[in-house]
């Protein structure tokens, strides 16, 4: 028995020795490889001693939206058009929506810019939950409009927004831009409904069975989540007028059969409202590095607007008018200076509106309702000119 064990041990010794040699070889090879990599990195660092500094100094971060939304596509376009190696770089960040984007620009370290619905700035100003927002947030430019979509059950008897009072209405997920905008908008209108929170796919099913009475979505048209909806399946878009209570924060808009061929008859359109999507920034002092980054972004972004309005960039860029202002809010000084020093497309002015009214033969003493109707027509006309 003893001899057998000795033979077995003797038999294993060469194998163990071979394994040990192989292990030593691997360790030596790994050490040699590590040394080679270290020398290469050291050589690169020696040839570009400021690379790390350049990357950090010339990168600007923008918080956007989720992978299915317009915001992330727009942020990616900014990166695709403006990136210039280590000289300048736009870093898009997936965000949680307009409301969280405002919070992130206000508080989150490393976030320079964000995209948000303009009315939510008014909402947070009203609630005061983010402090003195007027002193902390500035805007760079209005980007495009996001349309209000209210879907109801066809044949349910709801023909106007007022009739949503007391109804079960979905306003998308809790904390979303749609939810907060809907609360702000319907608060201005004095309409109270029973709030429900769920994603749009679930809401369309609940709407079909009558478990809810309407669902609200605020998104740039055409909204992907509504692409498969059809009127013959029991869905209808509720028209929304342009009451005076909303004219400070919203614009008139229309949804057409081209936008939603399954919901709107050919050649027809449905009135609704639009909310401006705006590019915002933290109000850094001019003598800071963070302000310098924002100024560098403006100097690269504003002159290249025409590039964003060509394929394959998102079609919403065609709505961008850099000179359009955001009433009640301050534009970052670098952007204001750029616009002041260069000729660019002008936003609609009071003089243009008066000329439009005169061209329609309307009396200067027209009623408020008549002038409101004319103003809606004027804004549509101005959009057509652009």
Describe the protein:
- It is a single chain.
- The longest helix is centred in the N-terminal third of the chain and has 46 residues, at 2-47.
- The protein is 43% helix and 17% strand.
- β1, α3 (70-82) and β2 form a beta-alpha-beta unit.
- It contains 13 helices and ten strands.
- It has two domains: 53-347, D-Maltodextrin-Binding Protein, domain 2, CATH 3.40.190; 348-386.
- The model is unreliable at 1-11 (pLDDT under 50).
- With 386 residues, the chain is an alpha/beta fold.
- Strands 1, 2, 3, 4, 5, 6, 7, 8, 9 and 10 form a ten-stranded mixed sheet that branches.
- α9 packs parallel to α11 (333-341).
- It has helices at residues 2-47, 51-57, 70-82, 98-107, 118-127, 133-136, 177-189, 200-209, 289-301, 305-308, 333-341, 350-359, 368-385, and strands spanning 59-63, 89-93, 113-117, 137-153, 168-170, 194-196, 214-219, 235-237, 251-256, 269-282.
Short description:
It contains 13 helices and ten strands.
Structural descriptors:
386 residues, D-Maltodextrin-Binding Protein, domain 2, 2 domains, 10-stranded mixed beta sheet
What topology does this entry show?
Elements: H1 2-47, H2 51-57, E1 59-63, H3 70-82, E2 89-93, H4 98-107, E3 113-117, H5 118-127, H6 133-136, E4 137-153, E5 168-170, H7 177-189, E6 194-196, H8 200-209, E7 214-219, E8 235-237, E9 251-256, E10 269-282, H9 289-301, H10 305-308, H11 333-341, H12 350-359, H13 368-385
Parallel strand pairs: 1-2, 1-3, 5-6, 5-7
Antiparallel strand pairs: 3-10, 4-7, 4-8, 4-10, 9-10
Helix pairs in contact: 9-11
